[in-house]
Design brief:
The protein has 265 residues and is of the alpha/beta class. It has helices at residues 23-33, 61-74, 88-100, 126-133, 144-151, 158-172, 215-228, 233-249; strands spanning 9-17, 37-48, 53-58, 79-82, 106-108, 139-140, 175-179, 188-194, 199-205, 252-254, 257-259.
Length: 265
C-alpha cells in the first residue's frame, strides 16, 4: 500500500479572470507550480481578456463567506491571500471571518485598478480595506499606485518606496512589500520590503518588450505558496521575487498576447 504524501494548503480569496491571466486563475497556477494544494473563494466574476475588463459582477458576501468557511472546515490553509475584493461589504465579511480564526499568515494584495485601467475596488471600500483588513495582515503588497492611495502621497523614486513601506508598517501594523515596477526612469524593477526590523531592496532587470498582466497576483500568490511550504516571511518574499522575475522572463505566447509562465521551473 503506497504512502500518500501530505501537501500544504493555500487559499486565495479573489476575483475570477475569464482570460486566465490574473486573479484566481493566476493564483491557482502559482500554487500548483510550487507544489501547494490551491483552494479558492471567488469574490467577483469578471468578463476580461488580456486587453481589458469588460464587466464585473460581484458575488454576494454570504457566498464569499460560505466558500471560505467550507475551505477552513476541511482543508485548513497554512497561508491565505486576498486579491480583488471589490466592495466594502465583501471586505468586512472576509475581515470578520479572518479575525475570528487563527490564520497563520494573511497576505493582502490590495487590488484597486487593473493593468488596463478598470476600477477593481470601489472608492467606498478603501477605508474598510485600511481599517478592517490591513490590521489583520502579515504582509501587504501594493504596487506604486496602490501604495500612493494607502499613504496619501505621490511616489516617484526608490527612496519614496522606502518611506511608503515604513509608513504602511507604522500606520497599519503589517509588513509591506512596495513594488516599484511602475517607476519611471529606472533600469531595474525595484521593490522595498519592511517589517519593522528588516528592510530589503529587491531588484531585477526589467524584461523589455513583454507586456503581461497578473504579475501582482502571481507575485503575492508565490509568497503565499512559499509560506504554506514552511518558509519564513523574508525567505518567502525573496523566493517569490525570483519566481515572478522568471515567470516574466520566460513568458509564453498565448494567442496574440504574452502570458506569465508560472511553470517555468
Amino acid at each position: 500500500m503506497s504512502k500518500q504524501m501530505s501537501v500544504p494548503v493555500a487559499l486565495t480569496i479573489a476575483g475570477s479572470d475569464s482570460g486566465g491571466g490574473a486573479g484566481i486563475q493566476a493564483d491557482l497556477k502559482t500554487f500548483a507550480a510550487l507544489g501547494v494544494h490551491g483552494t479558492s473563494a471567488i469574490t467577483c466574476i469578471t468578463a476580461q481578456n488580456p486587453k481589458k475588463v469588460i464587466s464585473i459582477e460581484p458575488c454576494s458576501p454570504s457566498i464569499v463567506r460560505q466558500q471560505v468557511e467550507a475551505v477552513f472546515t476541511e482543508l485548513r490553509p497554512a497561508a491565505v491571500k486576498t486579491g480583488m475584493l471589490y466592495s466594502e461589504e465583501i471586505i468586512r465579511t472576509v475581515a470578520k471571518f479572518i479575525s475570528a480564526r487563527q490564520v497563520p499568515a494573511l497576505i493582502v494584495d490590495p487590488v484597486m485598478i487593473s493593468t488596463s485601467g478598470a476600477q477593481l475596488l470601489k472608492d467606498s471600500a478603501i477605508q474598510a480595506l485600511k481599517n478592517k483588513l490591513l490590521p489583520l495582515a502579515t504582509l501587504v503588497t501594493p504596487n506604486l499606485d496602490e501604495a500612493e492611495v494607502l499613504i496619501g502621497r505621490k511616489l516617484s523614486s526608490v527612496e519614496d518606496l522606502r518611506l511608503a513601506a515604513r509608513k504602511i508598517y507604522s500606520q497599519f501594523g503589517c509588513a509591506a512589500l512596495v513594488k516599484g515596477g511602475h517607476l519611471k526612469g529606472t533600469r531595474d524593477a525595484a521593490d522595498i520590503f519592511y517589517d519593522g526590523k528588516e528592510e530589503l531592496l529587491l531588484t531585477a532587470p526589467f524584461v523589455r518588450g513583454i507586456h503581461t498582466h497578473g504579475t501582482g497576483c502571481t507575485y503575492s500568490a508565490a509568497i503565499v505558496g512559499y509560506l504554506a511550504s514552511g518558509y519564513d516571511l523574508i525567505a518567502a518574499v525573496l523566493h517569490a521575487k525570483e519566481f515572478i522575475t522568471q515567470a516574466i522572463a520566460q513568458s509564453q505566447k498565448v494567442g496574440a498576447h504574452s502570458a506569465l509562465n508560472s511553470f517555468w521551473k
